[in-house]
Amino acid sequence: VNNRWLGKSSASSHSLTGQQYASTMIGFDMIRNHPCFEPNDLVLQMDSDIIIKCNCDIIRQCASIFERDPSVVTFAFPIPSKGGVALQHLDKAGKPFRFEIRCSFLHLDRLVAML
């Protein structure tokens, strides 16, 4: 797993600061090798304590971001606010910046192509 995903020969499953990563990467491999996985499929990765409630097709809205921009590899699940749901998070220069590991969409084919 470490060699394939990180280019390192190691038996470690956690980062130096303690975050586990190996099971997530093994999960990505299992999904990509599953018979139901097709090219360009998106994966929604989330912690087990995430609750989703919305009155719109938020999954389709998020997926459309990957369709519009072939450089998008990950996209954080939007956070509701008083003005509605923010699908895009921009820095002061107008560039997207937010990555949310607790609940995010991943384009696995694009991610693997970066390895």
Blueprint (SSEs and pairs):
Layout: H1 2-6, H2 22-32, E1 42-46, H3 58-68, E2 74-76, E3 79-81, E4 84-86, E5 103-107, H4 108-113
Antiparallel strand pairs: 1-5, 2-5, 3-4
Structural class: alpha+beta
Report the sheet with the most strands, covering strand number, pairing sense and barrel closure.
3 strands, antiparallel
Rg over CA atoms, rounded to whole Å, is 16 Å
Number of strands: 5
Distance between the ends: 12 Å
Q: Kindly estimate the percentage of residues that lie in beta strands according to DSSP.
A: 15-25%
**Tally the helices: what do you get?**
4
- Strand order, sheet with most strands: 1-5-2
Mean pLDDT: 82
Query: Poorly predicted ranges (pLDDT <50, ≥5 residues)?
Result: none
Which word captures the global form?
A: globular
Spell out the helices and strands N to C: HHEHEEEEH
The share of residues in helices is: 25-40%
Task: Record keyword descriptors for this entry.
single chain; alpha+beta; 3-stranded antiparallel sheet; two-stranded antiparallel sheet; 17% strand
Overview of this protein structure:
The chain has 115 residues and is an alpha+beta fold. The chain is built from four helices and five strands; from the N terminus they run ααβαββββα. It has helices at residues 2-6, 22-32, 58-68, 108-113, and strands at residues 42-46, 74-76, 79-81, 84-86, 103-107. The strands form two sheets. The protein has a three-stranded antiparallel β-sheet with strand order 1-5-2. It has a two-stranded antiparallel ribbon with strand order 3-4. A hairpin with a 2-residue loop joins strand 3 and strand 4. The radius of gyration is 16 Å and the shape is globular. It starts with a helix and ends with a helix.
